[in-house]
């Protein structure tokens, strides 16, 4: 009986794996054409300065509208793009699109906001990265200080010496540098201080645990204090409740982004959100 059960279990797994790899193959071949077919779109999530209560930036986040399957989340397609090397062209497109949208908002008359673009580790290794950044700044005409690049601890740790040199070059161009999802990797702030980073983004998991977990609070407090000591700005991601926002504000966190403020939205909605916020300061009763 045990043997029979084992075999059924095996067959079940085999079928499941087959279905998974078929879907995987489908996504892979579709992703190869996503960019040229215009299926990619950049969405933007506003960031709030917790002291001034102003929108001071947006994070650019890629979306893929698959013609049959609908919206595929980045956690699903970014790793495939990374594996197939497609992330290089997709990432370059993201950078161009984000800079173009940022410039359009400026022309529309919105106050200057910093636009942050995620860089994958693979892009970070690319020999053309610096040239790509220079080219996009030149062709868009966006001020370098209005662009920030978000990199992960992993990208830095893979080859620290190369990373340090790249980051110095980018910093010298006047572009901001943020370490994304901080706290999920194995690097420490005392190590990261050797790199010219301007911003630390506290990972969403710590914010999520904030209310139930004293350890998460201790970590958040520590990250804020240390980052400030090292002259870095702190951004909290994944703010979903007023309580989380209040905690971070009262503990000196500089900026926050999350569904509570605004979900990632298409460029024109982001523009409208920022324009509305200008007229009607965001939730003043909460932040007063
Ligand atoms: P990330 O850079 O850490 O981006 C933040 C993620 O948290 C986004 O997920 C955002 O939608 C989500 N988020 C923001 N506020 C909340 C909240 O209050 N609650 C919850 N539950 N989630 C929140 P998204 O857009 O699905 O992107 C996931 C990841 O995919 C990003 O994480 C980033 O690592 C990667 N990614 C997205 N766009 C790009 C891109 O253009 N290039 C590269 N290389 N990676 C990208
Ligand atoms: Mg990010
Ligand atoms: Mg993040
Ligand atoms: Mg994240």
From TrEMBL:
Residues 24-278 form the EAL domain. Keywords: Membrane, Transmembrane, Transmembrane helix. It is found in: Membrane. GO terms for molecular function: cyclic-guanylate-specific phosphodiesterase activity. One of its GO terms (biological process) is cellular response to nitric oxide. One of its GO terms (cellular component) is membrane. Its main location: membrane. This is EAL domain-containing protein. It comes from Variovorax gossypii.
């Amino acid at each position: 009986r045990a043997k029979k059960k084992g075999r059924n279990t095996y067959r079940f797994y085999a079928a499941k794996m087959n279905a998974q790899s078929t879907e995987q193959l489908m996504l892979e071949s579709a992703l190869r054409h996503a960019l040229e077919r215009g299926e990619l779109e950049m969405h933007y999530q506003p960031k709030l300065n917790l002291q001034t209560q102003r929108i001071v930036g947006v994070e650019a986040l890629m979306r893929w509208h698959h013609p049959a399957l609908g919206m595929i989340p980045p956690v699903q397609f970014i790793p495939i793009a990374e594996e197939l090397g497609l992330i290089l062209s997709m990432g370059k497109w993201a950078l161009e699109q984000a800079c173009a949208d940022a410039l359009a908002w400026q022309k529309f008359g919105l106050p200057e906001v910093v636009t942050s673009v995620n860089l994958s580790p693979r892009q970070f290794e690319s020999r053309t990265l610096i040239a790509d950044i220079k080219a996009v700044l030149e062709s868009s005409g966006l001020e370098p200080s209005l662009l920030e690049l978000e990199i992960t601890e992993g990208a830095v740790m893979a080859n620290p010496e190369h990373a340090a040199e790249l980051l110095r070059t980018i910093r010298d161009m006047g572009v901001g540098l943020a370490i994304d999802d901080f706290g999920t990797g194995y690097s420490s702030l005392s190590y990261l201080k050797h790199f010219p980073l301007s911003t630390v983004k506290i990972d969403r998991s710590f914010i999520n645990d904030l209310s139930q977990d004293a350890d998460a609070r201790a970590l958040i407090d520590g990250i804020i204090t240390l980052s400030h000591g090292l002259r870095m700005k702190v951004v909290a991601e994944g703010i979903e409740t007023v309580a989380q926002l209040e905690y971070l504000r009262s503990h000196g966190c500089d900026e926050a982004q999350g569904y509570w403020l605004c979900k990632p939205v298409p460029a024109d909605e982001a523009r409208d959100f920022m324009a509305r916020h200008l007229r009607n300061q965001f939730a003043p009763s909460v932040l007063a």
